[in-house]
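Notes from the 1:1 (GR / supervisor)

We went over the backlog. Supervisor wanted to see one worked example end to end before approving the batch request, so GR pasted a single chain during the call. The sequence is below; no edits were made to it. Supervisor asked that the structure be written out right there so they could see what the output format looks like.
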Amino acid sequence: MIQNYFTPPDTFQTERLLLKKTTLEDASALLEIWSNEEVAKFMNIERFKSISQAEEMIKAIEEEASACRYTIFNHQIVIGSIGINEISVRDASFEIGYELSKDYWRHGFMSEALTAFLELLAKNSAFQVITAKVLHKNMASIALLKKLGFWECQQIQEFDLFNHTLCDISVFKRDLLI
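Structure output shown during the call:
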């Protein structure tokens, strides 16, 4: 289904980063990120504990027709991932998600990756809107989205797989303009 609304390239680059479609080869490096307690608590996932969990996640993304994920590399080191979590044909929108290794927080890497990803979507899709869901306590991600022109459009509650409780989520939105 993603091919109908966005044809993702295999790779794209920024000044400091290479982003390539996530494959099973990335599982070990992504496991290090997805198993980090400080990263996983903001991802609304159970903290991964095994390579098979990372491989299952990548396979699920590959099999989901409305998903697309890129692994983010800095000097050939995996530092995170970014991608489309869901497509809403009704709203002509993409929901995106992203995470970054804690070692690379607050160095502008996600701002750089997200800016390039938004430009890629704007140039290669007829869709008009991007959304992102963020836990209320993830102040850095909220600040990043606001910096990139997103605004909070809704507050919802979802089950938090990390804490096994209901959590407050802010839904952010941005028009996708070139």
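Supervisor's comment: The chain has one domain: 2-175.
Batch request approved.
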